[in-house]
C-alpha cells in the first residue's frame, strides 16, 4: 500500500478527496445502471424459433406452423418448441408457404 502522510491535516484532506471521488463513482454507477436498464427495455425479446398460428374466435384452433419471426403468422400466434412444431406438421397442420418451417425442420413435404 502507498505511504500515507503522517499529519492529521493532510490525512483529513485525503479523506475528503476520497469521499468526493467515491461519491462521484457511485453517481456514475447509478447513471450506468439507468442506461443499461433503458437499453434492456428498448431491446425487443428474441423471437421464438417456431410459431403456431391460431384461428379467429373464442375456440381458436391451430391453423399453421411458422418459423419464428415470420410476419405472416400475425398476432394470433404463440411460441412453440421444435418438437411441438414437428409434431404439428406430422399431424397435418399447414406449413407456412413463405417461411417454410417444414424445410427448416428437415421434413420433406
Low-confidence blocks of residues: none
Distance between the termini: 72 Å
Task: Provide the gyration radius in Å.
Answer: 29 Å
Measured by DSSP, the beta-strand proportion falls in 15-25%
Quick description:
The chain contains three helices and four strands. It has 109 residues and is α+β, with helices and mostly antiparallel strands.
Q: What topology emerges from the helices and strands here?
A:
Layout: H1 8-42, E1 50-54, E2 62-67, E3 77-80, H2 82-90, E4 94-95, H3 101-104
Parallel strand pairs: 2-4
Antiparallel strand pairs: 1-2, 1-3
Q: Can you give a write-up of this model?
A:
The chain is of the alpha+beta class and 109 residues long. It folds into two domains: 7-43; 50-104, no CATH class. It is 44% helix and 16% strand. It has three helices and four strands; from the N terminus they run αβββαβα. It has a four-stranded mixed β-sheet with strand order 3-1-2-4. The model has no long low-confidence stretch (mean pLDDT 92).
Characteristic terms for this protein:
single chain; 109 residues; alpha+beta; 2 domains; four-stranded mixed beta sheet; 3 helices; 16% strand; rod-shaped
